[in-house]
Design goal:
The chain is mostly beta strands. It has helices at residues 6-29, 96-99, 105-108, 315-320, 322-330, and strands at residues 2-3, 31-45, 59-74, 77-90, 121-126, 130-144, 148-155, 187-195, 201-207, 223-232, 235-244, 247-258, 261-272, 275-290, 293-303, 339-350, 353-362, 368-379, 382-392, 402-403, 411-412, 416-427. It has one domain (2-427): Porin (Beta Barrel). Helix content is 11%, strand content 52%.
């Protein structure tokens, strides 16, 4: 097993110790510790026409994830530190990201900090089939009063109302078929929030990002954004203005009640080099009883203005659509079509067992993905999760498989996937 040089590890330790020294006064006041251990296993069987149907098929992946958390409080000040250690085994480590979907989930956990303001990640060791990777995923200090919150450092933020599709969630959104959404990947930012007495608030942030080639902070890579959240009599309205990766973005969202259930929608318009691009979502969330069992569900419609037109596509079509392809590479977007519908329910079969079937449909090409997740709580701090992904579709569709230039008629096709997750909470801070 090859080990990375001491210089890289020393750099990581130097930055890490510097930030710890900044949090030391808070730690001395009041510190709460927590964390978890997760084990994620994936088994993916690709169809015969898939470009991945080779000696590495079926694809197998094991991911161990350790997250250690420290949260400190002293008066109006608080600090947050999360250290993450990932150990990944993959039967096809070189191509696991390309495999996409649930297959290759572990590889997405290994994203580097090359665009971040602070480089707080490093590879400890790696081989042809495994890698051990560490990262500081939260490292922030905040000052809060009744009227103002200021937070600087590595943190996460979520905007928008979508359940699985969210055009206003600009910063490290989850894929629609994500299994584990407990923690978003943190990003280095300056965050400000002004609070009003009626529950409304005004938020602003600045995310300095570095150019991957020069290493310098670049205005074309960085983000600045503001959002006004208005709350009144059960109605919530958001207005968003942002500049992200050189594009201007305006968005609006609404959430309200209808017949004791929740409806919401959001719309965004992005000013790109080629003109304005619109995206939008609308969803309906409901809850009821099914034979005395708690049942909740949703249905959501999504229009992706960056998506491809038509119902037959190749890999080259995606690459040629530069604005779509760049967002796929950055992990801002996960869909290639224009029109989508998603629906799902959560059934509380027993107080300890939840069943969650979901269906994602690309209305533009008729392909779909069926997902099923079962979650069982063995104890207050120990959960087990298992499920599967089944894609359906014709050749040349998103879930059936995009065509390639291969003479054998190979497709970039998703796999039938089985997955399992075990989660053990070490402890949890009482404040979040």
């Amino acid at each position: 097993m090859a080990t990375h040089n001491k210089k890289e590890i020393g750099k990581f330790k130097g930055v890490f110790l510097l930030m710890l020294s900044c949090l030391a006064p808070l730690a001395a006041a009041n510190t709460e510790l927590g964390g978890h251990v997760k084990f994620f296993y994936t088994y993916a069987d690709f169809p015969d026409k898939s470009v991945f149907s080779d000696e590495a098929d079926p694809y197998k992946e094991s991911l161990g994830n350790l997250r250690l958390k420290a949260e400190s409080y002293a008066g109006n000040w608080d600090g947050q530190l999360h250290y993450v250690l990932n150990g990944l085994y993959s039967s096809d480590l070189n191509n696991c990201v390309l495999r996409g979907g649930i297959a290759g989930r572990g590889c997405r956990e290994l994203a580097s900090d090359q665009n971040q303001f602070m480089d707080l990640s490093s590879i400890i060791s790696e081989s042809d089939s495994s890698v051990v990777y560490q990262r500081v995923d939260r490292l922030a200090v905040a000052y809060a009063t009744e009227k103002l919150v200021t937070r600087v450092g590595r943190q996460a933020i979520s905007w928008g109302n979508g359940v699985v599709y969210n055009p206003l969630d600009l910063f490290n959104p989850f894929p629609p078929d994500a299994i584990d959404t407990e923690y978003k990947r943190g990003e280095d930012m300056l965050y400000l929030q002004g609070l009003f007495s009626n529950g409304s608030d005004l938020q602003g942030l600045y995310i300095p990002r570095r150019d991957a080639v020069s290493g310098d902070v670049s205005s074309e890579q960085s983000a600045v954004a503001g959002k006004f959240h208005w709350l009144s009599a059960g109605h919530e309205v958001d207005f968003l203005v942002a500049r992200n990766y050189g594009d201007g973005i305006f968005g609006a969202a609404y959430t309200g009640e209808w017949r004791e259930n929740v409806i919401s929608s959001s719309v965004s318009v992005t000013q790109t080099d080629s003109g304005k691009v619109w995206s939008a979502e609308a969803n309906y969330n409901y809850s009821s009883l099914l034979y005395g069992k708690n049942l909740s569900g949703f249905i959501e419609f999504f229009y992706n203005g960056f998506g491809l037109k038509g119902d037959q596509h190749s890999i080259q079509d995606v690459i040629d659509q530069a604005e779509l392809f760049s967002r796929l590479l950055r992990g801002e977007l996960f869909t290639i079509g224009r029109f989508y519908i998603a629906t799902g329910v959560v059934l509380e079969a027993t107080p300890l067992l939840n069943l969650k079937p979901l269906l994602f449909v690309n209305l533009s090409d008729g392909s779909s993905l069926l997902q099923f997740i079962g979650t069982y709580s063995l104890s207050q701090n120990f959960d087990l999760l298992a499920g599967f992904n089944l894609p359906f579709g014709k050749d040349g569709t998103e879930y059936g498989g995009l065509t390639t230039n291969s003479e054998q008629g190979k497709l970039l096709a998703p796999a039938d996937t089985l997955f399992a997750l075990s989660l053990i909470h070490i402890s949890e801070p009482t404040r979040h």
